[in-house]
Structure formats: structure tokens, C-alpha cells
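[Meeting: bench + compute handoff]

Bench side (C.D.) handed over the final construct sequence. Compute side (W.E.) agreed to return the predicted structure before the next meeting so the bench team could plan truncations. Sequence as handed over:
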Amino acid sequence: MSLLPYLHKKEIEAGCDEAGRGCLAGPVYAAAVILPKDFSHPLLNDSKQLTELERDELRPLIECSAIAWAVASVRPKKIDAINILNASFLAMHKAVGKLATVPTSLLIDGNRFTPYKNIPHHCIIKGDGKYASIAAASVLAKTHRDAYMKRAAKKHPYYSWDSNKGYPTIAHRAAIKKHGTTKYHRISFKLM
């Protein structure tokens, strides 16, 4: 199924998505992307449906082609303070706030969102597999977060973040048991 270019043709739509909600370590990232109405790419899809190589190929194409794009994150300490759902919304708000072009409508991946200023929003379940701008946001959020976790992995090699990106793999949980937690870990999450 090909992605839809927009929900409303006359609106300046920013697609929004997050990455890293289910992780035990690292920030949650979000991206907001405003694409030209005629943008399409055969690879573009929900980032979870793509290989790491495909995502890395798409990232510069999206960043060069977008009318505007922004990525933002919320750190583990803040996630622990306000919970992961609110942290995801906050990351999206921060990304939208950084856009060089102000959108007139937000397309949000998922079923819930807290309104941002006075910009109307539309929650779209599995939106990253339906709308190009949300798919593009999913790719940017994921690739920017993965790059961050690879850098963090150099400081803390025991946790294999270069491969698991902070997700709750058996190896990651075993490393927490053996080496304890770091400032990158979300203490409010069930870590073991």
C-alpha cells in the first residue's frame, strides 16, 4: 500500500512520531516533518518496517527534501518524573516548536495527544504506515535516537546499546543485573 501524501490538501501538515518509548535506557525522541505535497520515495514507510540501512539511506533524503523538519528528545530523568506517555507528547511538542515553518495541522501517530498551542491535530492509529509525513517523522526520530544510543554505547559497552538501542533484550537486562544502572537508564521502568 502506498502512503498518502496528506490528510487535507490545503493545510500545512506536520507529521509527528516518536521513537524509544519501550526502551529501558536513553531518551525518547520525536520528530516533526512537513513534506512537499508531491514528495514520494519507494522506500518510505513506517521505520519499524525498514532495515537500519534503509532508514539511514532515507534520513538525508527526508532532511534535504522536507519543507521543514525538527527532532527533539526528553531525557530519562524527565521520563521518570512525568511518565513515558507524557514524555513522548513533550518530545513531539518540542519538535513541533522547533520547526522553521509553522504548521496549520498536526498528524500524530497513535491514538492520543495533548494539544500543542492552538494547532489542530489528528491522531491516526498506525499513521506511520499510512501518511508520508508521519512515516518520515518515524524515520528521523528512529535514526537520530539510534545514533545517540550508539554514541552512549561507547561510554557503557556492557549494555550492547549499539545493537539493542536500549530496548529490553535479555542481554541488556542481564547487563543491568550484573553492572547496575547508569544515568541513561529509566529508573521508573521494570529494568530486570
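W.E. noted at the follow-up: The chain has one domain: 13-179. C.D. will use this when planning the next construct.
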